[in-house]
Amino acid sequence: MGLSYRTFGFKCPPALAFCRMTHMDSKPRSLNNPFSRSPPREARLSEAGEEGSIITLREWQGWGTTSPVPTIVTRIAEDLKDLEKDMDAQMSFGGNGGKLQGHFKIQEDKKHRATYQALGDSEQKLQFFSARQIACRLLGSRGYLCQKCWLPYEDCMCSRIAPCKLWHGIRFWLYMHPKDFLRQNNTGKLLWQLFGVETASLCLFGISEHEGIMWNAFKLAGKDKVWCLYPNKNAVVESVQEAFDQGSSADLEFTEAMKNGDETLNFVLIDGTWSNSAAMFRRLKDQAKLVWGEEDIRCISLATGASAMHKLRPQPSWDRTCTAAAAIGLLYELQLLPKFSSFGLDKQAEAIEDALVVLLDALTTRRLRMGRSITRKVRHTSDIC
């Protein structure tokens, strides 16, 4: 049976419809608008006191992971606490991305740059960079962001998300860049909100504990059960049909194995900006070479389509979309294949679509309340719902 490709149109209620204006058409925002930025907030290091640790296991796992607290993240958080004592000043965060602010930022910046330069190799530097990003974001978000949806508490959308089960034969791996960790408009977080952290697992780029867990799972599964959803133009890329439509007899054996829970298909979703994703994909290839002896990790291309999030977070082209939209596209395309048609993947894709609309609504409401623009430069308008 041939796979008929289609454009996936994501649900978009009329209340969320955006006028197609460019930045030049929209009214300029006042630079003095007191609501256009998040107010500065102080990190409350003293709140985490379990066994004297700055970041407790409960807090760490509350952000969407099952791993232990990474050692290097704890060490950097402790260094920040020591710097507070030395300076007799409390660190504060604010602005876009919740970055360190004020005099503390200046001193911490000098210290971390010196530490970074003193590190011996690129791997140590990557791990330090990733851990520092994560530690600062976590400390700056404590008491400010909801741990489940990563939105400020006043905008929490958790009550509007209806968790459901993903078919047991699929496991998503959210391979996330540290600069996307705790990012409010990140869409990968929706997958574990819906399906749970065991089915949609967070793996932070450059964090050895996370990457070790993911690759141990890949070793057990075998290379033929691991795919990466990435539009890689420098390698052989398969469509969903090419990857999984193996013929009637093979399909029958596959379906029986899937029904019995004997096999799990692992899909890596690279969750980061497109400028960062190339380095993340290279790291996957390097690790694949160490594990399997060859660096080519199997890539799947999807039929492209518009995501509701393109309104607030435009993409450079239609073969590049947000993380949740990639998961939606994969589930819909798998549903079209006979071997997957009985697993209800289309219903699970619809659940992600619904969650994506909830996130868009929450972000839009917040931006309007804070006096921020909700229009973006129009790209590929013919496909926007």
TrEMBL record:
Transmembrane segments: none annotated. Its EC number is 2.5.1.25. Keywords: S-adenosyl-L-methionine, Transferase, tRNA processing. It comes from the Eukaryota. Residues 142-372 form the DTW domain. InterPro entries: DTW (IPR005636), DTWD2/TAPT (IPR039262). It holds the Pfam family DTW. It is an enzyme of class 2 (transferase). GO terms for biological process: tRNA processing. This is tRNA-uridine aminocarboxypropyltransferase. The keyword Hydrolase does not apply. Residues 27-49 are annotated as: Disordered. One of its GO terms (molecular function) is tRNA-uridine aminocarboxypropyltransferase activity.
